[in-house]
Protein: Molybdopterin molybdenumtransferase
Organism: Kytococcus sedentarius
Amino acid sequence: MPQGADTVVPVELTDIPRGPVPLPQEVRVDELPAGDNIRAAGSDVTTGQVVAEAGTVLDALTLGAVAAVGVAEVEATRPVRVRAVATGDELAPLGTELGPGQLPDCNSWLVHGLATALGHPTERVLLDHDDPEELGRRLPELTADTDLLVFTGGVSAGAFEVVRQCLEPRGIEFGQVSMQPGKPQGVGQLDGVTVLCLPGNPVSAVVSFLAFARPWLDAASGRETPGPVTTVLGDGWAKKPGRTQYMPVTLSPEEGRLVARRRSAEGSLSHLASRLAGVDGFAIVPAAAEGVQEGDLVEVMMVP
């Protein structure tokens, strides 16, 4: 600002003709309050102010903000790479005709979509067999160029649990978690790659990804996993005590409250894949509870 000036008048508020014309000797301006159109030093950012916290994704807006304060370089890590592997000889690729006893593969798409929504490049793989030896031969390929290997299916205690039968002898730990859905789980490392083995039922796979894979991905990316959201139940239901329940719910603002309702009357059955459409999150019901009532407060684990 020139010394003695305290206001900036936009040219469109003067009588200067538009376009490249010679400046007149005198200019008429509309009346403006003193101090108008002044951008004070420090009004955008002050000395020592943090522009982008550690763990912030360097998206277009963050890059613009960093560039705007003249920072040419920042320490960053590449996105964590994920490989989503759906297993089972009952699975068929989308778009193919189903044979007897077959199901379309949706798990690789679910894990791919969840990981991608969190900003991680993800590759889908379908292993449509239950052969532990064949899976073992493919492990070098599956662990190459990835940071997190997520299997779905083949992790329980049946006779044809391809993932458990192949990976348990290789040091991956398998066990049961007191949750519904999502009881059987596996975790470990292969050649420096973290491996998570999730159940094959689609709702179980989603709940397990949000409960276990998302916190790992967030930690590896230097950011905190958002906590659950407190809601008011719009309906109630009974449950068997003993396991923490994750109920698919939809959320809606009503009279200043966030209200959660079951996505379907069938509840949290692990095979209800088509009922995942429109789910906002999963209401967490404590293991000891025998049910919940309309009006109860409940925490909801949100879908990204």
About this structure: The first strand starts at residue 82 and ends at 87.
